[in-house]
Amino acid sequence: MSDHPNQEPAFNFDEALARVDQDRETLVLMIELFLEHGPKDLAHARAALTAEDAPGVARFSHRLKGAILQFCAPAALEACKALEESAKAGNLTRGGELYATLEQEVHRLLTALRPILEQGMTA
Question: Which range of residues forms the domain containing residue 35?
Answer without folding.
Answer: 16-122
